[in-house]
Amino acid sequence: MWEYARYLSSAGHEVTYVAAAYSGAAPEELVDGLRVIRLGRIHTLWLRSFAYYIRRARGQVDVVVAEGFGGSRIPRLVPLYVREPILTEWHQVYRPLFAAQYPRVMHAPLNLLEWLTARAHRGTLLRAGTEEVKQDFIGLGFRADRIFVLPVSVRDEWLNHSDLPTTGSQELIWLGKVRKYKRPDHAIRALVTVIRRFPGARLTIAGRHDDRAYEKVLFGLVRELDLEDHVEFRFDVSETEKRALLLRSRALVLPSAVEGFGIVVVEANSCGVPVIASSGVPASVVRDGHTGLRYPSGDIDALATQICRLFADDVLHGSLSVNARSFARQFGWRSIGGQYASVIEDLIAGRQIVAAAPVQLESEIPV
């Protein structure tokens, strides 16, 4: 959402970005050309957003882009009070996430909350990152004629490097917010099998702090499996550090129970790094045998098999690496941002959204 907003600002639109506050942050400042308003802690953001809109934004803006469900924890339910046209960002259907992340007793209430929130947003314009996610949204109750497909983007500097990943590396990397549903523990468990065949194999868990209790579980798991010499944890790495970690890696491991798109896939692919992905990742994002390898979600033995396969076969790795770089070039910030800006401008003008058809991703990339 930040990258889309940043592009809109660069194209001459005046953008206000309303978000939660954090310790040491200014309540209001200009960042990357965006006016950033921070409104208290995340669990009160829904109420503060409503108050901010009523006091300072109603009648003063042309369009509202709102995160419908997910990051704000408690949904804002903006269609209940916003008068202007609304574009909803809803990153994925969350039912599989709830099943993997939370105790069973919470599943039914959370699923109901997601369904009710989807009903509130049903008449808004909705972005889906892939065609598969669009179909999931339709199953959740969104109107098919109000969904357009547009993937994520990466900053162009990710695509303008000529450096290549380390040849013959036995390094793996997992990237993301450290949460249970993203299953970094599966990558750790798979490593036990991998090092029997490749004793030099190593795994870096790199990401952002999110669930401290789960982090302790991961640290304990590494000790329990006697993998202290094979697993490294890196938190809050910079973009430069992230790229360096990718370039030393043989593959990015993505064992998530569910992913809407997974921007880390494009970042890895831009470095020529294939992705080993679970079936929880859309098939159009990681193509088996073309830009990466796939395995059934939750099958740790199958994950280990695919890792060993990629370690053992330099020809396969080279082919996937070349294809991955070509695939990543479709997701440049200027290209995707320009399409997003066109949707916003059509929405403001009341025109039919020309991006309602799926963005066609390359299905075959010659090696």
Characterize this entry briefly.
With 367 residues, the chain is an alpha/beta fold.
The CATH superfamily of the largest domain turns out to be: Glycogen Phosphorylase B
Overall mean pLDDT? 93
Biggest sheet strand line-up = 10-9-8-11-12-13
CATH architecture grouping of the largest domain: 3-Layer(aba) Sandwich
Q: How helical, in percent, are the residues?
A: 25-40%
β content, as a range?
15-25%
Helical region count? 12
The radius of gyration computed from the alpha-carbon positions, rounded to a whole number of angstroms, is 21 Å
What is this structure's SSE topology?
Elements: H1 2-10, E1 16-19, E2 28-31, E3 34-38, H2 45-57, E4 64-67, E5 86-89, H3 95-101, H4 104-121, E6 125-128, H5 131-140, E7 147-149, E8 171-177, H6 184-197, E9 202-208, H7 212-224, E10 231-235, H8 239-247, E11 251-254, H9 263-270, E12 275-278, E13 292-295, H10 300-312, H11 314-328, H12 333-349
Parallel strand pairs: 1-3, 4-5, 5-6, 6-7, 8-9, 8-11, 9-10, 11-12, 12-13
Antiparallel strand pairs: 2-3
Helix pairs in contact: 1-12, 6-10, 9-11
Describe it:
It is a single chain. With 367 residues, the protein is an alpha/beta fold. It is built from twelve helices and 13 strands. The protein has a six-stranded parallel sheet with strand order 10-9-8-11-12-13, sandwiched between helices. Strand 6, helix 5 and strand 7 form a beta-alpha-beta unit. Helix 6 crosses helix 10 and helix 9 crosses helix 11. The longest helix has 18 residues. The chain is globular, with a radius of gyration of 21 Å. The protein starts with a helix and ends in an 18-residue tail after the last helix. The C terminus is likely disordered.
